[in-house]
Amino acid sequence: MLFPSVPPDDAHPDGDGAGPGHLRRPEASRARAQGIKAVGVAGQERRPSPRRTLRTLTHVTTDAHPLLPALEARVRETAHARTPACPCGAATLADRPDATVVRHAGTVAKAHAAGADPAELSLRVTAAARLPGVLLPPLAPAPVVLHGRPVTYWPYGAPVDPEDPDAAPWEAAATLLARLHRTAAPTPVPPMRGPAKAALAVARLREAAPHHPATAPVLAAWSALPAWARGAAAMPDTTTLCHGDLHLGQLIRHPAPDGPWLLIDVDDLGTGVPAWDLARPAAWYACGLLPPEEWHRFLTAYRASGGPAVPADGDPWPVLDVPARALTAQTAARAVTKAVLADRPLDEVEGRLVDACARMASVRPDAPRG
Amino acid sequence: MQCPKCHAPMHTYNRNGVQIEQCSGCRGIFLDYGELESLTRLEAQWSQPAPPPPPAAPQAYPAAQAPAWGAPHGGGHGHYGHHRQKSFGRMLFSS
Predict the structure, then answer these.
(1) Are residues A226 and A113 in the same domain?
(2) Residue A119 included in any domain
(3) For residue A136, which of A268, A277, A262, A266 has the smallest C-alpha distance?
(4) pLDDT at position A364, please?
(5) Can you give the pLDDT at residue A61?
(6) Which of B24, B46, B65 sits opposite A23 (nearest CB)?
(7) In a domain, A296, yes or no
(8) How far apart are the first and last CA of chain A?
(9) Which residue did the predictor score with more confidence, A335 or B78?
Protein backbone atom coordinates (compact mmCIF):
# COMPACT_ATOMS: atom_id res chain seq x y z
CA MET A 1 0.00 0.00 0.00
CA LEU A 2 1.41 3.36 -0.97
CA PHE A 3 -0.06 5.44 1.86
CA PRO A 4 -0.38 3.79 5.19
CA SER A 5 -2.24 5.94 7.72
CA VAL A 6 -0.02 8.93 8.28
CA PRO A 7 1.06 9.47 11.86
CA PRO A 8 1.30 13.05 13.11
CA ASP A 9 4.64 14.72 12.70
CA ASP A 10 5.63 14.26 16.33
CA ALA A 11 5.34 10.47 16.09
CA HIS A 12 8.58 8.65 16.66
CA PRO A 13 9.96 7.03 13.57
CA ASP A 14 9.88 3.29 13.39
CA GLY A 15 13.22 1.99 14.56
CA ASP A 16 12.91 -1.42 12.96
CA GLY A 17 13.69 -1.26 9.29
CA ALA A 18 12.39 1.39 6.92
CA GLY A 19 10.17 -0.46 4.50
CA PRO A 20 8.35 1.20 1.62
CA GLY A 21 6.14 3.97 2.83
CA HIS A 22 8.28 4.61 5.86
CA LEU A 23 9.72 8.06 5.96
CA ARG A 24 12.25 8.10 8.75
CA ARG A 25 13.52 11.31 10.18
CA PRO A 26 17.30 11.15 9.83
CA GLU A 27 18.06 13.19 12.99
CA ALA A 28 15.91 10.91 15.12
CA SER A 29 17.51 7.75 13.73
CA ARG A 30 20.92 9.25 14.39
CA ALA A 31 20.04 9.96 18.02
CA ARG A 32 18.72 6.41 18.33
CA ALA A 33 21.84 4.95 16.76
CA GLN A 34 24.02 6.88 19.19
CA GLY A 35 21.98 5.67 22.12
CA ILE A 36 20.89 9.14 23.17
CA LYS A 37 18.02 8.96 25.60
CA ALA A 38 16.12 11.40 27.74
CA VAL A 39 18.12 12.23 30.85
CA GLY A 40 16.68 11.33 34.25
CA VAL A 41 14.81 8.39 35.68
CA ALA A 42 11.64 8.06 33.66
CA GLY A 43 10.87 11.72 33.89
CA GLN A 44 10.25 11.45 37.59
CA GLU A 45 13.21 13.55 38.62
CA ARG A 46 11.99 16.50 36.63
CA ARG A 47 10.37 19.57 38.03
CA PRO A 48 6.59 19.32 38.11
CA SER A 49 5.19 20.44 34.78
CA PRO A 50 2.62 23.25 34.83
CA ARG A 51 0.02 20.61 33.97
CA ARG A 52 0.95 18.49 36.92
CA THR A 53 0.86 21.53 39.20
CA LEU A 54 -2.58 22.39 37.92
CA ARG A 55 -3.78 18.86 38.51
CA THR A 56 -2.43 18.96 42.04
CA LEU A 57 -4.19 22.23 42.77
CA THR A 58 -7.44 20.94 41.30
CA HIS A 59 -7.17 17.81 43.35
CA VAL A 60 -6.56 19.73 46.57
CA THR A 61 -9.34 22.24 46.06
CA THR A 62 -11.98 19.75 44.96
CA ASP A 63 -11.07 17.29 47.66
CA ALA A 64 -11.00 19.94 50.40
CA HIS A 65 -8.38 17.71 52.11
CA PRO A 66 -4.76 18.64 51.63
CA LEU A 67 -3.78 14.99 51.14
CA LEU A 68 -0.65 15.67 49.14
CA PRO A 69 1.24 17.77 51.74
CA ALA A 70 0.18 15.34 54.49
CA LEU A 71 1.34 12.37 52.40
CA GLU A 72 4.62 14.14 51.64
CA ALA A 73 5.18 14.74 55.35
CA ARG A 74 4.50 11.07 56.14
CA VAL A 75 6.82 9.74 53.45
CA ARG A 76 9.53 12.15 54.63
CA GLU A 77 9.18 10.85 58.23
CA THR A 78 9.24 7.24 57.05
CA ALA A 79 12.24 7.85 54.78
CA HIS A 80 14.17 9.63 57.54
CA ALA A 81 13.46 6.78 59.95
CA ARG A 82 14.96 4.34 57.40
CA THR A 83 17.88 6.57 56.33
CA PRO A 84 18.87 9.18 58.95
CA ALA A 85 21.43 10.76 56.56
CA CYS A 86 18.77 11.42 53.92
CA PRO A 87 19.75 13.35 50.77
CA CYS A 88 16.09 14.47 50.64
CA GLY A 89 15.20 13.83 47.01
CA ALA A 90 11.42 14.18 46.92
CA ALA A 91 8.98 13.91 44.03
CA THR A 92 5.30 13.40 43.27
CA LEU A 93 5.12 10.29 41.05
CA ALA A 94 1.35 10.32 40.50
CA ASP A 95 -1.61 12.33 41.76
CA ARG A 96 -4.96 10.91 40.71
CA PRO A 97 -8.14 10.20 42.64
CA ASP A 98 -7.34 6.48 42.52
CA ALA A 99 -3.64 6.78 43.35
CA THR A 100 -1.48 9.52 44.79
CA VAL A 101 2.15 8.38 44.91
CA VAL A 102 4.98 10.42 46.40
CA ARG A 103 8.63 9.54 46.70
CA HIS A 104 11.12 10.73 49.28
CA ALA A 105 14.61 9.43 48.46
CA GLY A 106 14.38 5.63 48.73
CA THR A 107 10.85 5.54 50.16
CA VAL A 108 7.54 5.72 48.29
CA ALA A 109 4.11 6.32 49.86
CA LYS A 110 0.97 5.44 47.95
CA ALA A 111 -2.46 6.77 48.89
CA HIS A 112 -4.94 4.31 47.37
CA ALA A 113 -8.43 5.14 46.08
CA ALA A 114 -10.76 6.50 48.77
CA GLY A 115 -13.16 3.63 48.09
CA ALA A 116 -10.48 0.91 48.43
CA ASP A 117 -11.50 -1.67 51.03
CA PRO A 118 -8.73 -1.47 53.68
CA ALA A 119 -9.24 -5.12 54.70
CA GLU A 120 -8.93 -6.38 51.10
CA LEU A 121 -5.99 -4.06 50.44
CA SER A 122 -4.32 -5.39 53.57
CA LEU A 123 -4.69 -9.00 52.30
CA ARG A 124 -3.15 -7.99 48.96
CA VAL A 125 -0.22 -6.15 50.58
CA THR A 126 0.35 -9.09 52.94
CA ALA A 127 0.52 -11.47 49.97
CA ALA A 128 3.01 -9.14 48.22
CA ALA A 129 5.25 -9.32 51.28
CA ARG A 130 5.34 -13.12 50.84
CA LEU A 131 6.19 -13.17 47.13
CA PRO A 132 9.79 -11.96 46.97
CA GLY A 133 11.35 -12.08 43.52
CA VAL A 134 7.95 -11.49 41.91
CA LEU A 135 6.33 -8.52 43.67
CA LEU A 136 8.06 -5.60 45.34
CA PRO A 137 7.81 -6.25 49.09
CA PRO A 138 6.07 -3.47 51.07
CA LEU A 139 7.81 -1.72 53.99
CA ALA A 140 4.86 -2.52 56.27
CA PRO A 141 1.99 -4.95 55.61
CA ALA A 142 -0.84 -2.89 57.11
CA PRO A 143 -2.17 0.23 55.34
CA VAL A 144 -2.65 3.34 57.47
CA VAL A 145 -5.50 5.78 56.79
CA LEU A 146 -4.69 9.38 55.90
CA HIS A 147 -7.41 11.88 54.94
CA GLY A 148 -9.80 9.04 54.27
CA ARG A 149 -7.43 7.15 51.98
CA PRO A 150 -5.48 3.99 52.83
CA VAL A 151 -1.72 4.58 52.55
CA THR A 152 1.01 1.98 52.01
CA TYR A 153 4.82 2.35 52.03
CA TRP A 154 7.25 0.81 49.57
CA PRO A 155 10.93 0.97 48.71
CA TYR A 156 11.70 3.03 45.60
CA GLY A 157 12.41 1.15 42.38
CA ALA A 158 13.48 2.46 38.95
CA PRO A 159 10.60 2.31 36.43
CA VAL A 160 10.61 1.63 32.67
CA ASP A 161 11.52 4.85 30.86
CA PRO A 162 8.27 6.07 29.26
CA GLU A 163 10.33 7.99 26.68
CA ASP A 164 11.90 4.76 25.48
CA PRO A 165 9.20 2.11 24.92
CA ASP A 166 11.70 0.20 22.75
CA ALA A 167 13.45 -0.70 25.99
CA ALA A 168 10.27 -2.33 27.33
CA PRO A 169 11.31 -5.41 29.32
CA TRP A 170 8.77 -7.76 27.71
CA GLU A 171 10.70 -10.90 28.69
CA ALA A 172 10.98 -9.80 32.32
CA ALA A 173 7.29 -8.92 32.45
CA ALA A 174 6.32 -12.31 31.01
CA THR A 175 8.68 -14.25 33.28
CA LEU A 176 7.38 -12.47 36.39
CA LEU A 177 3.77 -13.17 35.39
CA ALA A 178 4.53 -16.84 34.71
CA ARG A 179 6.16 -17.10 38.14
CA LEU A 180 3.19 -15.36 39.80
CA HIS A 181 0.67 -17.59 38.02
CA ARG A 182 2.56 -20.72 39.06
CA THR A 183 2.70 -19.70 42.74
CA ALA A 184 -0.06 -20.74 45.13
CA ALA A 185 -1.39 -17.70 47.00
CA PRO A 186 0.82 -17.56 50.13
CA THR A 187 -2.01 -15.99 52.15
CA PRO A 188 -5.73 -15.68 51.32
CA VAL A 189 -6.47 -12.99 48.72
CA PRO A 190 -9.73 -11.64 47.25
CA PRO A 191 -10.60 -12.15 43.56
CA MET A 192 -8.50 -10.32 40.96
CA ARG A 193 -10.22 -7.05 40.06
CA GLY A 194 -9.54 -6.83 36.30
CA PRO A 195 -13.12 -7.53 35.11
CA ALA A 196 -14.60 -5.24 37.79
CA LYS A 197 -12.30 -2.40 36.70
CA ALA A 198 -13.25 -2.94 33.05
CA ALA A 199 -16.94 -2.81 34.04
CA LEU A 200 -16.29 0.50 35.80
CA ALA A 201 -14.66 1.99 32.68
CA VAL A 202 -17.65 0.91 30.56
CA ALA A 203 -20.12 2.35 33.11
CA ARG A 204 -18.25 5.66 32.95
CA LEU A 205 -18.43 5.63 29.15
CA ARG A 206 -22.21 5.10 29.25
CA GLU A 207 -22.51 8.06 31.60
CA ALA A 208 -20.05 10.46 29.95
CA ALA A 209 -20.66 9.78 26.24
CA PRO A 210 -24.05 8.14 25.64
CA HIS A 211 -24.37 9.68 22.17
CA HIS A 212 -20.78 9.58 20.88
CA PRO A 213 -20.60 7.53 17.64
CA ALA A 214 -17.87 5.32 19.16
CA THR A 215 -19.93 4.40 22.22
CA ALA A 216 -22.29 1.98 20.44
CA PRO A 217 -19.59 -0.35 19.02
CA VAL A 218 -17.74 -0.38 22.36
CA LEU A 219 -20.93 -1.25 24.28
CA ALA A 220 -21.86 -3.90 21.71
CA ALA A 221 -18.43 -5.56 22.03
CA TRP A 222 -18.71 -5.41 25.82
CA SER A 223 -22.21 -6.85 26.08
CA ALA A 224 -21.27 -9.86 23.90
CA LEU A 225 -18.75 -10.99 26.54
CA PRO A 226 -19.49 -13.75 29.05
CA ALA A 227 -20.65 -12.51 32.47
CA TRP A 228 -17.37 -13.31 34.25
CA ALA A 229 -15.40 -11.06 31.88
CA ARG A 230 -17.84 -8.22 32.62
CA GLY A 231 -17.39 -8.57 36.39
CA ALA A 232 -21.00 -9.81 36.60
CA ALA A 233 -20.22 -13.37 37.74
CA ALA A 234 -17.42 -15.28 39.46
CA MET A 235 -14.42 -16.05 37.26
CA PRO A 236 -14.04 -19.66 36.02
CA ASP A 237 -10.64 -19.85 37.79
CA THR A 238 -10.71 -19.12 41.53
CA THR A 239 -7.25 -20.30 42.52
CA THR A 240 -4.61 -18.87 40.16
CA LEU A 241 -2.84 -15.80 41.53
CA CYS A 242 -3.04 -12.89 39.06
CA HIS A 243 -1.74 -9.32 38.98
CA GLY A 244 -4.93 -7.90 37.47
CA ASP A 245 -3.60 -4.69 35.89
CA LEU A 246 -0.45 -5.37 33.89
CA HIS A 247 1.10 -2.55 31.88
CA LEU A 248 4.62 -1.19 31.53
CA GLY A 249 4.13 1.16 34.49
CA GLN A 250 3.81 -1.90 36.75
CA LEU A 251 7.47 -2.94 36.43
CA ILE A 252 10.37 -1.53 38.41
CA ARG A 253 13.97 -2.48 39.10
CA HIS A 254 14.77 -2.84 42.77
CA PRO A 255 17.23 -1.88 44.09
CA ALA A 256 17.38 1.02 41.60
CA PRO A 257 18.80 1.39 39.05
CA ASP A 258 20.09 -2.11 38.15
CA GLY A 259 18.31 -4.55 40.45
CA PRO A 260 16.05 -7.30 39.13
CA TRP A 261 12.68 -6.40 37.63
CA LEU A 262 9.68 -6.78 39.95
CA LEU A 263 5.95 -6.20 39.64
CA ILE A 264 4.33 -3.39 41.62
CA ASP A 265 0.77 -2.21 42.36
CA VAL A 266 -1.23 -4.82 44.24
CA ASP A 267 -4.57 -2.94 44.08
CA ASP A 268 -6.09 -5.49 41.67
CA LEU A 269 -4.05 -8.55 42.75
CA GLY A 270 -6.04 -11.70 43.45
CA THR A 271 -7.22 -15.07 42.20
CA GLY A 272 -8.71 -15.32 38.74
CA VAL A 273 -8.20 -16.14 35.07
CA PRO A 274 -4.45 -15.73 34.42
CA ALA A 275 -4.97 -15.00 30.70
CA TRP A 276 -6.26 -11.62 31.88
CA ASP A 277 -2.66 -10.65 32.70
CA LEU A 278 -1.53 -11.41 29.14
CA ALA A 279 -4.55 -9.81 27.57
CA ARG A 280 -3.53 -6.16 27.58
CA PRO A 281 -0.42 -6.74 25.42
CA ALA A 282 -2.54 -9.24 23.43
CA ALA A 283 -5.18 -6.54 22.86
CA TRP A 284 -2.54 -4.00 21.78
CA TYR A 285 -1.20 -6.55 19.33
CA ALA A 286 -4.65 -7.48 18.05
CA CYS A 287 -5.52 -3.81 17.50
CA GLY A 288 -2.41 -3.37 15.37
CA LEU A 289 -0.67 -1.13 17.92
CA LEU A 290 2.00 -3.43 19.36
CA PRO A 291 4.31 -4.87 16.67
CA PRO A 292 4.02 -8.67 16.29
CA GLU A 293 7.70 -9.05 17.25
CA GLU A 294 7.13 -7.50 20.68
CA TRP A 295 3.97 -9.50 21.33
CA HIS A 296 5.75 -12.74 20.39
CA ARG A 297 8.75 -11.90 22.60
CA PHE A 298 6.30 -11.53 25.50
CA LEU A 299 4.30 -14.69 24.69
CA THR A 300 7.40 -16.80 24.02
CA ALA A 301 9.03 -15.75 27.30
CA TYR A 302 5.81 -16.52 29.19
CA ARG A 303 5.65 -20.00 27.71
CA ALA A 304 9.37 -20.60 28.26
CA SER A 305 8.85 -19.85 31.96
CA GLY A 306 6.07 -22.43 32.19
CA GLY A 307 3.23 -19.91 32.48
CA PRO A 308 -0.07 -21.81 32.82
CA ALA A 309 -2.43 -19.21 31.26
CA VAL A 310 -2.05 -20.47 27.69
CA PRO A 311 -1.23 -23.92 26.24
CA ALA A 312 2.53 -24.53 25.96
CA ASP A 313 2.29 -24.48 22.16
CA GLY A 314 -0.26 -24.01 19.43
CA ASP A 315 -2.70 -21.16 19.05
CA PRO A 316 -3.13 -19.20 22.32
CA TRP A 317 -6.13 -17.22 21.03
CA PRO A 318 -8.90 -19.55 22.10
CA VAL A 319 -7.82 -18.67 25.66
CA LEU A 320 -6.86 -15.04 25.05
CA ASP A 321 -9.90 -14.08 22.98
CA VAL A 322 -12.36 -13.14 25.74
CA PRO A 323 -9.91 -11.28 28.01
CA ALA A 324 -8.37 -9.45 25.02
CA ARG A 325 -11.84 -8.38 23.86
CA ALA A 326 -12.63 -7.18 27.38
CA LEU A 327 -9.40 -5.18 27.64
CA THR A 328 -9.87 -3.71 24.16
CA ALA A 329 -13.38 -2.59 25.16
CA GLN A 330 -12.08 -1.22 28.48
CA THR A 331 -9.24 0.70 26.83
CA ALA A 332 -11.57 2.02 24.13
CA ALA A 333 -14.11 3.06 26.79
CA ARG A 334 -11.44 5.01 28.69
CA ALA A 335 -10.15 6.62 25.50
CA VAL A 336 -13.59 7.75 24.32
CA THR A 337 -14.51 9.03 27.79
CA LYS A 338 -11.28 11.02 27.97
CA ALA A 339 -11.72 12.44 24.47
CA VAL A 340 -15.31 13.50 25.21
CA LEU A 341 -14.37 15.14 28.51
CA ALA A 342 -11.55 16.99 26.73
CA ASP A 343 -13.91 17.88 23.84
CA ARG A 344 -11.53 16.57 21.18
CA PRO A 345 -11.80 14.00 18.38
CA LEU A 346 -10.36 10.51 18.84
CA ASP A 347 -6.76 10.23 17.70
CA GLU A 348 -5.61 7.45 15.40
CA VAL A 349 -4.61 5.05 18.16
CA GLU A 350 -7.94 5.53 19.95
CA GLY A 351 -9.76 5.07 16.65
CA ARG A 352 -8.05 1.70 16.19
CA LEU A 353 -9.42 0.47 19.51
CA VAL A 354 -12.95 1.47 18.52
CA ASP A 355 -12.48 -0.09 15.07
CA ALA A 356 -11.45 -3.37 16.75
CA CYS A 357 -14.60 -3.25 18.93
CA ALA A 358 -16.68 -2.73 15.77
CA ARG A 359 -15.03 -5.75 14.09
CA MET A 360 -15.86 -7.93 17.13
CA ALA A 361 -19.55 -7.74 16.22
CA SER A 362 -18.98 -10.00 13.22
CA VAL A 363 -17.21 -12.72 15.25
CA ARG A 364 -18.86 -13.76 18.50
CA PRO A 365 -16.55 -14.75 21.34
CA ASP A 366 -15.96 -18.46 21.84
CA ALA A 367 -18.47 -20.01 24.18
CA PRO A 368 -16.94 -20.31 27.66
CA ARG A 369 -15.62 -23.76 28.21
CA GLY A 370 -16.80 -26.09 30.97
CA MET B 1 -10.48 22.58 6.31
CA GLN B 2 -13.32 20.06 6.27
CA CYS B 3 -13.23 16.54 4.88
CA PRO B 4 -15.03 16.39 1.49
CA LYS B 5 -16.29 12.92 2.35
CA CYS B 6 -17.51 13.05 5.95
CA HIS B 7 -17.15 16.79 6.75
CA ALA B 8 -15.11 16.24 9.92
CA PRO B 9 -12.20 18.68 10.49
CA MET B 10 -8.94 17.83 8.75
CA HIS B 11 -5.56 18.20 10.48
CA THR B 12 -2.38 19.15 8.68
CA TYR B 13 0.78 17.11 9.17
CA ASN B 14 4.17 17.76 7.67
CA ARG B 15 5.96 14.68 6.37
CA ASN B 16 9.45 15.44 5.04
CA GLY B 17 8.32 18.82 3.82
CA VAL B 18 5.07 17.55 2.28
CA GLN B 19 1.88 18.99 3.81
CA ILE B 20 -0.72 16.29 4.29
CA GLU B 21 -4.28 16.84 5.50
CA GLN B 22 -5.79 13.94 7.37
CA CYS B 23 -9.44 13.74 8.39
CA SER B 24 -10.03 13.33 12.12
CA GLY B 25 -13.21 11.42 11.38
CA CYS B 26 -12.74 8.90 8.55
CA ARG B 27 -8.90 9.32 8.55
CA GLY B 28 -8.88 9.84 4.81
CA ILE B 29 -5.95 11.76 3.40
CA PHE B 30 -6.02 14.81 1.12
CA LEU B 31 -3.02 15.72 -1.01
CA ASP B 32 -2.45 19.02 -2.81
CA TYR B 33 -1.28 19.22 -6.46
CA GLY B 34 2.19 17.69 -6.80
CA GLU B 35 2.27 16.20 -3.31
CA LEU B 36 1.58 12.68 -4.52
CA GLU B 37 4.58 12.97 -6.84
CA SER B 38 6.72 14.34 -3.98
CA LEU B 39 5.79 11.42 -1.76
CA THR B 40 6.38 8.88 -4.53
CA ARG B 41 9.79 10.41 -5.12
CA LEU B 42 10.66 10.28 -1.41
CA GLU B 43 9.44 6.74 -1.17
CA ALA B 44 11.57 5.72 -4.15
CA GLN B 45 14.62 7.28 -2.52
CA TRP B 46 14.00 5.31 0.65
CA SER B 47 13.32 2.00 -0.97
CA GLN B 48 16.17 2.11 -3.52
CA PRO B 49 18.98 0.91 -1.23
CA ALA B 50 16.84 -1.87 0.21
CA PRO B 51 16.91 -5.23 -1.60
CA PRO B 52 13.49 -6.36 -2.87
CA PRO B 53 11.73 -8.59 -0.34
CA PRO B 54 11.55 -12.28 -1.23
CA PRO B 55 8.17 -13.06 -2.79
CA ALA B 56 6.96 -15.39 -0.06
CA ALA B 57 9.07 -14.57 2.98
CA PRO B 58 8.74 -17.34 5.57
CA GLN B 59 6.73 -15.95 8.44
CA ALA B 60 8.13 -16.35 11.91
CA TYR B 61 4.61 -16.83 13.30
CA PRO B 62 1.63 -18.53 11.72
CA ALA B 63 -0.68 -15.85 10.40
CA ALA B 64 -3.64 -17.56 12.06
CA GLN B 65 -2.35 -16.70 15.54
CA ALA B 66 -4.36 -13.53 15.90
CA PRO B 67 -8.02 -13.09 16.71
CA ALA B 68 -10.51 -12.89 13.83
CA TRP B 69 -11.45 -9.35 14.97
CA GLY B 70 -7.80 -8.22 14.91
CA ALA B 71 -6.43 -5.44 12.74
CA PRO B 72 -4.81 -6.47 9.46
CA HIS B 73 -1.10 -6.64 10.33
CA GLY B 74 0.63 -4.81 7.48
CA GLY B 75 1.96 -7.88 5.63
CA GLY B 76 5.58 -7.37 6.61
CA HIS B 77 5.63 -3.73 5.54
CA GLY B 78 5.94 -2.59 9.11
CA HIS B 79 2.99 -0.23 9.50
CA TYR B 80 3.92 0.34 13.10
CA GLY B 81 5.14 3.91 12.75
CA HIS B 82 1.92 4.85 14.48
CA HIS B 83 2.72 2.72 17.50
CA ARG B 84 5.39 5.26 18.37
CA GLN B 85 2.68 7.85 18.67
CA LYS B 86 2.57 9.56 22.01
CA SER B 87 -0.96 8.30 22.44
CA PHE B 88 0.16 4.65 22.33
CA GLY B 89 3.25 5.50 24.37
CA ARG B 90 0.96 6.67 27.17
CA MET B 91 -1.33 3.67 26.71
CA LEU B 92 1.59 1.28 27.32
CA PHE B 93 1.90 2.76 30.80
CA SER B 94 -1.72 3.04 31.89
CA SER B 95 -4.65 0.89 32.92
Answers:
(1) no
(2) yes
(3) A262
(4) 83
(5) 38
(6) B46
(7) yes
(8) 44
(9) A335
Q: Inspect the interface and report whether the beta carbons of A288 and B72 lie closer than 8 Å.
A: yes
pLDDT for res B84:
57
Mean pLDDT, consecutive 10-residue stretches, chain A (370 aa), reads 34 33 37 36 40 36 67 85 72 86 94 93 97 96 92 96 89 98 97 98 98 98 98 98 97 96 98 98 96 96 98 96 98 98 96 97 66
Cα(B16)–Cα(A16) distance, integer angstroms: 19
The CATH number linked to A61 is: 3.30.200
CA atoms of A300 and A307, how far apart (whole Å):
10
Burial class (CB in 10 A: 0-12, 13-18, 19+), A326: buried
> Within a 10 A sphere around the Cβ of A63, how many other Cβ atoms?
16
Within a domain: residue B72?
no
Supply the range of the domain harboring residue A58: 50-155
A20 at interface of B, judged by CB pairs closer than 8 A: yes
| Residue A11 DSSP code | S
Residue B8: CB atoms within 10 A of its CB come to: 15
A160 touches B at CB < 8 Å: yes
Å between B10 CA and nearest CA of chain A: 11
Count the domains in chain A: 2
Query: What is the ipTM, given to two decimal places?
Result: 0.75
CB contact under 8 A, A16 and B81: no
